[in-house]
Structures are given as C-alpha cells and as structure tokens.
Amino acid sequence: MSNSLDNIEARIVRLARAFPCLVRAPGIDPWDANRLDNWAASGGASHGEKCSARFVLTVWNPDHDWQAGRFELMEALGIWDIESHRAFLTWAANPWWA
Prior knowledge:
This protein is mostly helical. The protein has one domain (3-93). It contains five helices and no strands.
C-alpha cells in the first residue's frame, strides 16, 4: 500500500471514529468501505449509525452507489446527537474527500 493511500485511510478512520456510534462499527479499523456499507445496509445499524456510515462512505467515494443509500444532510442533522453534529461540523469547516 502506498504512503498516500495509508494517509487517506488514516484520515477516513479518524473521521469515522469522530462519530461515537461508529467507533466499533465493522469496516472502520482496518478501513473497509464495503464492509461498513454492508453493515449499514444490513438492518443491524440504528438510524443514527446508518446516517453516520452514509456520510463517511460519501466522503470516501461520493460517486459510488452505496447499498446503505445516499447520504441526506437534513435527515442526519435531525437524528444525530451533539457529538455527531460536532464531528460533521468539524469536517464541514475544512472539507476533504478521499
């Protein structure tokens, strides 16, 4: 794995871990977008977990048609707790995409 890919994966793991509901989610560490997507789409994730996973997956690849569905900001803002709002706002203040 190249250093740049290592760096990108480290960033996405840090972003995902900023959402308390994703700290122990499958596919977070080590990073595996497909595993996270499968978990979020499986019906085992709560609404907040699914919104958080959708957001992280969208940052990872906004053009991919994720099984978990499309990230919807207004839906997420209505369901997220304060820590998740903070994680999103921190990213939004200086957005980046993998």
